[in-house]
């Protein structure tokens, strides 16, 4: 590992403690001094920074320290022959490097940092008394130091730090590169943020590129629409557009699976990135699902009952998930649906714009309360489910909370489109949602974190002036303190299972459903979506690099439950667009089985068959990915076979010699 020891030192983690007022005479008892010494014993390179209100301990881990932690965590990494083997410090050259040339990915490094930081315990033969600002802390034998200081409010937070060199490079080549439209340095994003965020931006970029074709088609239809004088031409062109966008959506979802598998094959993803055995910022390891203790006792006592015990546990878990899903669906139907329909009906019958504005303000406030309450209830229900790991629990939360957002986003549009059949009002609602809502949401998404950051800086300055400790203007000079004051990348429904990617994916899913389910009513909606997404790529990048803290890496390498939600929206769009075409064709409401209506019904069934049959026609993995995996498996099998034969032949020779003797 000597070749890698001269790598540039990068501080990637920070520990925050309050700035002490009373200086301890005996440094061996001072909490800050003990923390620094313990971090150095572990192998960290430490730098202390005194801020305005707090003190910061910046940590950098040499490759040797990370390698030792990876070996202790038994992290499996891909080797040059394609096999995933347990990492060994002495055999570092046998493992595949990351796109930037480093040995460990950001997700692996973060887990190693957390393992080392939260692995400091009192290994001495007696308890130690630590002091901080006149307060004594009894550090018992075998007790975890960081968790103890966190419980005493001495360690305020442990958080990841930005790498300034890589951050500035990404700002220049990605966030501020507006003229590249959908082109993004995905490999550099993966190296810096991890697989989950890189997958999100790859999905957003591909989705935006694919939007350009239906956007051009829809804009053309809108321009031609001004000259249409009869209904017959519209009844011919709109079904063609509808069929085209449905086929577009089906192909997009299938080709995204191929893109995702190609990215995973290109990146040296380890078991840490694709399974959920990682640490959260609390340092407690999130382990995969394990059989309950009762099952383990049954297995030890009676092997005959093994199958029955596991089946009982499996179906009990499925029943609990079904019960929770049914509870959420029943709550949406009984509580949220009447509320949404009442708002849509009042908005339709009211004439005064002022009253409509007040009604909308009350509606938006109530919806925020309902969504937050639904998210909290969903989290509590999910914690009682028998899910395999944290990512499975997060997917379950996505399904439940998306039901709330689906109802509040689309029920008013369904009311205008399917009940009143008012296409002019429907177009106005779609324009309002796509243009005003998304623009305002982008502004709030990027301005609110900056306002929170500014307010935190104001509070720090105000407290210092109130104590009389500062008379001149207070300047924040240390970058680590600025990063600490920035808001984290968190989800609107809470930080228990999801991060900010929940809101980003939710925005894309609601947009996808809106433009696709009502494509026949407003074809130019694809233009609004394409323009918004081109801006979204750069604003989201700027948000992650400049406005928020560096996100904690997620142990996942796919879009998860969101792909199933996109598939569900495609099915819904087939039904809703066929209903729109049927009502457009049957304006008098006679519902006679005429060739036009019959053709719409036949078209619906054909599109549903295409939706379920296209996955058989286009495989989810490219041929080169399958060939590469087969080649690696063959090489690994050959090497293992040769080593096994050598071992067996050596054993036979030794056995023969002993027999002759």
TrEMBL record:
It comes from the Eukaryota. Signal peptide: none annotated. The keyword Membrane applies. Residues 189-631 form the Anoctamin transmembrane domain. It is a multi-pass membrane protein. Its main location: membrane. The chain crosses the membrane at residues 197-224, 236-256, 326-345, 357-375, 396-418, 508-534, 555-585, 597-614. Keywords: Membrane, Transmembrane, Transmembrane helix. GO terms for cellular component: membrane. It is found in: Membrane. One of its GO terms (molecular function) is chloride channel activity. InterPro entries: Anoctamin, Anoctamin_TM. This is Anoctamin transmembrane domain-containing protein. It comes from Vigna mungo (Black gram).
């Amino acid at each position: 590992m000597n070749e890698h020891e001269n790598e540039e030192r990068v501080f990637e983690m920070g520990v925050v403690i309050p700035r002490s007022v009373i200086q301890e005479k005996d440094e061996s008892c001072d909490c800050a001094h003990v923390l620094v010494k313990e971090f150095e014993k572990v192998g960290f390179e430490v730098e202390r920074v005194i801020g305005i209100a707090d003190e910061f301990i910046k940590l950098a881990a040499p490759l040797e320290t990370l390698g030792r932690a990876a070996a202790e965590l038994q992290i499996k990494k891909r080797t040059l022959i394609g096999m995933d083997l347990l990492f060994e410090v002495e055999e570092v050259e046998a493992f595949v490097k990351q796109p930037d040339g480093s040995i460990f990915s950001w997700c692996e490094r973060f887990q190693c940092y957390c393992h080392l930081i939260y692995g400091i315990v009192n290994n001495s033969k007696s308890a130690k008394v630590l002091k901080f600002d006149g307060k004594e802390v009894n550090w018992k034998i075998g007790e975890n130091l960081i968790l103890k200081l966190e419980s005493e409010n001495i360690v305020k937070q442990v958080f990841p730090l930005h790498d300034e060199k890589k951050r500035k490079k990404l700002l220049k080549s990605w966030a501020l590169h507006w003229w590249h439209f959908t082109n993004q340095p995905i490999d550099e994003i993966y190296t810096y943020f991890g697989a989950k965020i890189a997958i999100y931006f790859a999905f957003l970029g591909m989705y935006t590129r694919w939007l350009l074709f239906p956007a051009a088609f829809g804009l053309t239809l809108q321009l031609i629409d001004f000259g249409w004088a009869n209904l017959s031409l519209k009844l011919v062109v709109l079904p063609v557009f509808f069929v085209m966008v449905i086929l577009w959506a089906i192909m997009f979802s299938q080709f995204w699976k191929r893109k995702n598998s190609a990215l995973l094959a290109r990146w040296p993803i380890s078991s840490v990135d694709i399974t959920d055995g990682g640490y959260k910022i609390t340092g407690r390891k999130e382990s995969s699902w394990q059989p309950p203790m009762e099952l383990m006792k049954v297995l030890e006592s009676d092997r005959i009952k093994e199958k029955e015990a596991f089946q009982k546990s499996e179906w009990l878990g499925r029943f609990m998930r079904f019960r929770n899903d049914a509870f959420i669906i029943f709550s949406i139907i009984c509580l949220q649906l009447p509320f949404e329909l009442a708002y849509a009906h009042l908005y339709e019958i009211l004439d005064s714009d002022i009253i409509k504005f007040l009604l909308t303000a009350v509606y938006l406030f109530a919806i925020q309360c309902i969504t937050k309450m639904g998210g909290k209830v969903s989290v509590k229900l999910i914690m009682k489910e028998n899910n395999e790991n944290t990512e499975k629990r997060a997917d379950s939360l996505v399904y439940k909370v998306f039901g709330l957002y689906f109802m509040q986003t689309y029920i008013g549009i369904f009311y205008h489109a399917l009940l009143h059949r008012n296409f002019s009002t429907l177009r106005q609602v779609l324009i309002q949602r796509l243009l005003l809502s998304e623009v305002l949401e982008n502004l709030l998404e990027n301005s609110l974190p900056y306002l929170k950051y500014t307010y935190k800086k104001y509070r720090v300055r105000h407290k210092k002036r109130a104590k009389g400790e500062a008379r001149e203007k207070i300047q924040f000079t240390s970058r680590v303190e600025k990063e600490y004051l920035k808001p984290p990348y968190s989800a609107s429904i809470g930080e228990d299972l999801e991060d900010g990617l929940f809101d980003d994916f939710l925005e894309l899913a609601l947009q996808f459903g809106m433009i696709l389910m009502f494509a026949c009513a407003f074809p130019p909606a694809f233009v609004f979506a394409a323009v918004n997404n081109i801006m979204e790529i750069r604003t989201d990048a700027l948000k992650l690099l400049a406005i928020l803290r560096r996100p904690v890496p997620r142990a996942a390498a796919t879009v998860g439950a969101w792909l199933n939600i996109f598939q569900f929206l495609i099915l819904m769009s087939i039904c809703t667009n066929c209903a729109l075409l049927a009502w457009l064709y049957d304006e008098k409401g006679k519902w006679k089985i005429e060739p036009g209506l019959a053709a719409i019904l036949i078209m619906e069934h054909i599109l549903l068959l295409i939706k379920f049959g296209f996955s058989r026609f286009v495989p989810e993995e490219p041929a080169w990915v399958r060939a590469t995996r087969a080649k690696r498996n063959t090489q690994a099998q050959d090497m293992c076979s040769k080593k096994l034969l050598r071992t067996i032949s050596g054993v036979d020779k030794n056995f023969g010699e002993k027999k002759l003797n």
